[in-house]
Design a protein that fits this description.
alpha+beta; 8% strand
Length: 249
């Protein structure tokens, strides 16, 4: 996770790709992959109450939250640490806002799903991040700019200054808040996702473990290896990730 400003500075400042590649999160953690057919897996997800389209949308939200929790953090330098906090915050806000909007559409949900979503949205962490101060921080930081607080900005303002002006907390408090909130969203969605369907089956009754070989990008630094991750699950404290036709833990 590298800040856009930092990337631009390094790109146009004549720095080498090797210097640039030292930044970001280079930690590689192991994963166990599972494979299954979507037409069997999805009807067993979320208590079997949701349409396939909505199930896939929610799994995508969960995937993004889990990826942010696991990988969007680094201590290589201040710029990267700030960029990772920004990323985790906007993922959190968008996830919570999406769930809040879904809670206003009960006709799309069954009885169990309504209960799970209500539990999620009454969690003090999840409900707080969609309140006005954090919505203003999200808009100012990422979307609308800082014109509404321009008169409050001190002469020595930096990228972290809007945190206190919008949300009334310091960067360390926001960092801790975001991590707790991401955990709350992940755990709540995980419980909902793994609620059995009417036949008693969960998604894991339709998955099989498979061996996945890492693919290393020969154009990237030798320390990096990556694969496409588009979905994620979380069970018993273990993060799991799903590709186009597979899930891993």
């Amino acid at each position: 996770m590298i800040g856009v400003g930092q990337a631009a500075a390094w790109t146009f400042g004549g720095r080498s790709i090797n210097e640039f590649s030292k930044h970001g999160n280079h930690e590689q953690s192991s994963a166990t992959w599972f494979d299954g057919k979507l037409f069997r897996v999805l009807p067993a997800a979320f208590a079997g109450e949701l349409s396939m389209e909505l199930s896939l949308s929610l799994i995508t939200i969960h995937a993004t939250v889990q990826a942010a929790r696991r990988w969007a953090r680094t201590t290589c330098c201040a710029w990267c640490a700030i960029a990772s906090l920004e990323h985790r915050f906007v993922v959190l806000h968008h996830a919570a806002r999406s769930l809040e909007m879904l809670s206003g559409r009960p006709h799309l949900l069954g009885a169990k799903s309504t209960e799970h979503l209500r539990d999620l949205m009454t969690d003090v962490h999840v409900s707080t991040v969609v309140t006005q101060p954090y919505r203003r921080l999200r808009n100012g930081w990422f979307h609308l700019g800082l014109a509404d607080i321009a008169h409050q900005l001190p002469s020595d303002s930096d990228i972290l200054t809007p945190i206190s002006l919008y949300a009334g907390v310091d960067p360390l408090e926001l960092d801790a808040f975001v991590d707790l909130d991401l955990d709350a969203v992940a755990d709540g969605m995980n419980t909902w996702l793994l609620d059995p369907a009417k036949d008693g089956n969960t998604i894991f009754d339709h998955l099989r473990q498979v061996a996945i070989q890492k693919v290393v990008d020969t154009h990237a630094p030798s320390s990096s290896a990556s694969g496409l991750v588009i979905g994620s699950l979380h069970r018993a404290g273990t993060a799991m990730y799903s590709g186009a036709s597979s899930i891993c833990t």
